[in-house]
Automatic annotation (TrEMBL):
This is Aspartate aminotransferase family protein. Its cofactor is pyridoxal 5'-phosphate. One of its GO terms (cellular component) is cytosol. Belongs to the class-III pyridoxal-phosphate-dependent aminotransferase family. InterPro entries: Aminotrans_3 (IPR005814), Aminotrans_3_PPA_site (IPR049704), PyrdxlP-dep_Trfase (IPR015424), PyrdxlP-dep_Trfase_major (IPR015421), PyrdxlP-dep_Trfase_small (IPR015422). One of its GO terms (molecular function) is transaminase activity. Keywords: Aminotransferase, Pyridoxal phosphate, Transferase. SUPFAM superfamilies: PLP-dependent transferases.
Length: 465
């Protein structure tokens, strides 16, 4: 018989791990390997810190999964959820109905988004947001009498979610390999990653060359068949790939030239992450659609969706008839109430300005000092996201062989030293909560240096250097 809740809370770490391994299939996880090792059990959090079931304090330099923008433990979000759960825990938006929190959130999103956005379609996650994008752009072109415009162009190593359409838009080949993806009508161009494709070129030239791959693909597919281009302003899960400043303006020019819809996936970059409300504002594009999730509620409760520009909304509303798409939780009142409280808190704490003018530039300055470390080939940031490139030789950017998994070695030291940093291949990445202070940046930098030194000592002792 299952123990009562109160008793469950007192289980030991080992007991939690056993029950976890027995019943819980984790996302993106090798379950056999995890069961042998045991999960780390996180039990509470405050501000930018987590605590595990053994009482260890951990600095969360990943904001959970890139989402806890306002930090943990914000009472106004908890109060908004509690109030709404009591007043009206659920009602849908299907049958010509709406709820006050969903309407208020739609209004507030239009206020904080770039001016072309006055409408929103709600979903439950970023993946559902991107599934909505696929359906919506094809419906848009069909409504305009151009149903042959079906193809959506994305990038290799992009991440757009884990549903069938989300994973297809994404450019992760190992995801495509499971499940026969991508679905038809989705094609990819190389990513604007200078280390991979641009060495020997100055970065601004490379940005234009990489954007040119979009034009080449449009011409290959046939401009009359292309519906949209989708990209993250800064690729997150791909390893915080910050494109050269010339990239997005050139992408915009090409989309304009062929009349193709531009979709900015703002699931990570939205809500202040890059030092503007949305990453497209930092990177210089004027999208027709924006996918959002994560930071819209700071991850306190699931919510996602798509901001729809007037270009698209006009056609949907005036010519589209019924859009045969939607989710039970499209406009969920509790999620919407939390999102409203979250956005108001971002405004009240002036977090966008804090990232743009204060803690973002400070992080950039501190991060750059890591370039003197013998393992670091590059260190770059955009707002409060950043990446370190771990290399064998910083002068030549010679990589470690992939099978040594240098990133995972470094990540192991981070976990062992009270720091959550993520490894993507040979890139160590961060995206800490936007409430982070300069003193906390210093604290994080000291931890990062210590973990790099431990990784270096490991690499030397194993004869990798
Ligand atoms: N787009 C981007 C850019 C993302 O980073 C993610 C999630 N990491 C998604 C979409 C998918 O969001 P979700 O996990 O909420 O479905």
């Amino acid at each position: 018989q299952a123990p009562a809740l109160a008793q469950k809370a007192q289980r030991s770490t080992r007991e939690w791990q056993q029950a976890d391994a027995a019943h819980f299939l984790h996302p993106f996880t090798d379950s056999k390997a995890l069961a042998a090792k045991g999960s780390r059990i996180i039990t509470k959090a405050e501000n930018i810190y987590l605590w595990d079931s053994e009482g260890h304090k951990i600095l969360d330099a990943m904001s959970g999964l890139w989402c806890v923008n306002v930090g943990y433990g914000q009472p106004s979000l908890v109060e908004a959820a509690t109030r709404q759960l009591q007043q009206l825990p659920f009602y849908n938006a299907f049958f010509q109905t709406a709820t006050p929190p969903a309407i208020e959130l739609a209004e507030l999103l239009a206020e904080v988004s770039p001016p072309q956005f006055q409408h929103v379609f709600f979903a439950g996650s970023g993946s559902e947001g991107n599934d909505t994008v696929v359906r919506m752009v094809r419906h848009y072109w069909a409504s305009l009498g151009q149903p042959e415009r079906q193809v959506i162009i994305s990038r290799e190593n992009a991440y757009h979610g884990s549903t069938m359409a989300g994973a297809s838009l994404g450019g992760m080949r190992y995801m495509h390999a499971q499940g026969g993806l991508p679905i038809p009508g989705i094609t990819h161009i190389p990513q604007p990653y200078w280390v991979e494709h641009g060495q020997g070129m100055d970065k601004d030239t490379f940005g234009k060359v990489a954007a040119g791959w979009l034009e080449a693909k449009i011409l290959e597919v046939g401009p009359e068949k292309v519906a949209a281009f989708i990209g993250e302003p800064v690729q997150g899960a791909g390893g915080v790939i910050i494109p050269p400043a010339t990239y997005w303006p050139e992408i915009q020019r090409i989309c304009d030239k062929y009349g193709i819809l531009l979709v900015s996936d703002e699931v990570i970059c939205g809500f202040g992450r890059t030092g503007a409300w949305f990453g497209c504002e930092t990177q210089g594009s004027r999208p027709d659609l924006m996918t959002f999730a994560k930071g819209v509620t700071s991850g306190y409760i699931p919510l996602g969706g798509v901001m729809v520009s007037e270009r698209v909304a006009k056609v949907l509303i005036e010519q589209g008839g019924e859009f045969e798409h939607g989710f039970t939780y499209s406009g969920h009142p509790v999620a919407a109430a939390v999102a409203v409280a979250n956005i108001r808190l971002i405004q009240k704490l002036r977090l966008v300005e804090h990232v743009r003018d204060d803690v973002g530039p400070y992080l950039a300055q501190q991060f750059a000092t890591l370039k003197d470390h013998p393992l670091v080939g590059d260190a770059e940031t955009c707002g409060l996201m950043g990446a370190l490139l771990l290399v064998k030789d910083p002068a030549t950017l010679t990589p470690f062989p992939a099978e040594l998994e240098i990133g995972m070695v470094c990540r192991g030291h981070c976990f062992g030293n009270g720091l959550i940093m993520r490894a993507v291949g040979n890139r160590m990445i961060i995206a800490p909560p936007l409430v982070m202070t300069r003193a906390q940046v210093d604290e994080m930098m000291a931890l990062i240096r210590r973990c790099l030194d431990l990784t270096l000592a490991d690499a030397r002792s194993k004869g990798w250097l």
